[in-house]
Amino acid sequence: xxxxxxxxxxxxxxxxxxxxxxxxxxxxxxxxxxxxxxxxxxxxxxxxxxxxxxxxxxxxxxxxxxxxxxxxxxxxxxxxxxxxxxxxxxxxxxxxxxxxxxxxxxxxxxxxxxxxxxxxxxxxxxxxxxxxxxxxxxxxxxxxxxxxxxxxxxxxxxxxxxxxxxxxxxxxxxxxxxxxxxxxxxxxxxxxxxxxxxxxxxxxxxxxxxxxxxxxxxxxxxxxxxxxx
Amino acid sequence: xxxxxxxxxxxxxxxxxxxxxxxxxxxxxxxxxxxxxxxxxxxxxxxxxxxxxxxxxxxxxxxxxxxxxxxxxxxxxxxxxxxxxxxxxxxxxxxxxxxxxxxxxxxxxxxxxxxxxxxxxxxxxxxxxxxxxxxxxxxxxxxxxxxxxxxxxxxxxxxxxxxxxxxxxxxxxxxxxxxxxxxxxxxxxx
Lengths: 229, 190
Fold this sequence. Notes:
The complex is a heterodimer.
Chain A (H helix, E strand, L loop, with lengths): L1 H12 L14 E3 L6 H18 L2 E7 L7 H12 L9 E7 L4 E7 L8 H11 L1 H5 L3 H20 L20 H17 L25 E9 L1
Parallel strand pairs in A: 1-2, 2-3
Antiparallel strand pairs in A: 3-4, 4-5
Helix pairs in contact in A: 2-6, 4-6
Chain B lengths: L1 H66 L7 H16 L3 H24 L1 H4 L2 H36 L3 H7 L20
């Protein structure tokens, strides 16, 4: 029984090892508080529409600062930690604003680089994003940029949303669905009872794999554009 | 009675040894495959780094042709960039390529500095697009290089850790070097 307790404790501890980068749960994450709830809802409805039509996952993150990494590295690491975009298609996109540093960056996943080359993203940002940020009109800027990029993705990317829902694992770091987990627990308990716990004297295999979140497993390669405001 | 007990004890010992051997073989195979996979991902990641270098090299003729028309850019720098590009393409070893690439970076940086010094250049779309692409390429190289180093770190840590280093030593898995900015790692077969 003690071994089972240890096992359960190790499951509980594992998720905290993942890292210091924010794992985004939904389309808009505002750590600074620049946006009202209705505004967040508006922006999210654009992202949701893009996802429904093409499967591409857009996310917006507002942070206070990106030190010590700098905005480029921070964007890549956050992108990776969240896994924006579907695995294999890498069709994610992250709009990152670092409020106190006055920096922005749009990080484009590998799969979207074709329709959104750096120069195009930069031009979109210069037209309908940076001018608003300069005037402290954050909602207008973010909404316009999200809409402009979303339109391009819908018109030109031509992907399809995933038909099957991406599996959602109840326990992070343990890639098992509920029913699979149940079977494992039943076997585990049965074996423990039958051997009176002696089974744990043998070293047992440790589970590997990454946990599932709201987003897929996409990656970016540093494509996109950045600037000051 | 005691003979029977002895027999059972012997069977248990034999069984335990047998199980242990099977476990050892399975574990060795698993570790070996894991190491092969990690090495493969290092090579794969190196290919990504090279791709991004190639991308930068491919960008240069276009860049030179576009900015040539503006007198703010020194023609000496542009000629230097073109010469370095040729040198890069003719370079035989990875070390040479990386060294040339570092010189190229310095020259390209001066082009970007010129671009930033004259704000009106930013309003010329053809020029600003190319500068953005150039900066993007730099960032891509940084990202892929970082991932390469991550892969190397992952592998190097694994082959030195107990108990995996037993497998690593007996099958001759060697430590791989990092890609510090400046010096190229030893890459076999490139």
